[in-house]
Sequence to fold (330 residues):
Amino acid sequence: MGEYKLSFTITNEILSYVSSISEKIGRITATSNLEAKPHLRKSNRIRSIHSSLKIEANSLSLGQVRDVINGKMVLGEQKEIQEVKNAHAAYERNSEIDPYSIKDLKKFHSIMTKYVVEESGNFRRGEEGVFNGERCIFMAPPARFVPQLMEDLFNWMKEAKNSVHPLILGSVFHYEFVFIHPFSDGNGRMARLWHTAILSKWKSVFEYIPIESQIEKFQDEYYEAIARCHVDGASTIFIEFMLSQIDKILDDISIQISEDNERFSECIKKLLAVMEYDIPYTGKTLMEKLGLKSKEGFRRNYIRPAIDMNLICMTIPDKPNSRNQRYVKV
Fold:
């Protein structure tokens, strides 16, 4: 097999999306610290896992995926439950990924496919095709070429990371990875995880943006873009498709953050208004200052969201229900 060449064209549409996405990421980062909203981070990560697995025919609902992640008992196929546990373990360690390391790729494939894939963590030895449901889009390169193709792809990424925008590089990698199809199973999940890892190295907020949920909404178009690129011998169409989906999901994230801020703003404003910095308050004292009588309403609408947003902290975080608990404005 000759030298592995990647082919794509930087179109005006691609440049427009790069500009739009960069502007939206800047706005989200400037106006709202998503990393300081653990409830939204967790919700979006669950959406990412559910959507990425659903694309691969996992039948568990969003609620069931959430329950598995929260350690609750779920009735379902053991393989599907294990896939959720594996994906959660992989996404939780996203920040540890070196997206330019084949060693890390194999390591995270073993995490993503633990107990469910025989060749977990190793490149495939058999022949594979890329399927959308029952329809074969194309046959992947022969297994004997996979190690060299992957080495060539990662070498290209290492050389291109300083000259190709991460938004474009991530999309090129995603398509080329799916084309090579290096593993016997779990290729789609790994392509989406790795795409997220590449973008997260550029802007850390991408670790909490569920790109997978957008792909799942437009699954047929996703596979159609892959198929068209295979015919063209270039990844341009797939780059345009992926950037359009990232651009759309950022609009959803902006709305999500806005609704979250509106939901808690009045209660939190009142709570912060009655607190002085660095002074510990009992829950009873704060309820009196706010004129509240319901302890549960106080915890649900004031204390929990304020803690989630890192606006207040507990003096005894390991024992949230301690009688000596105090709350401090930070």
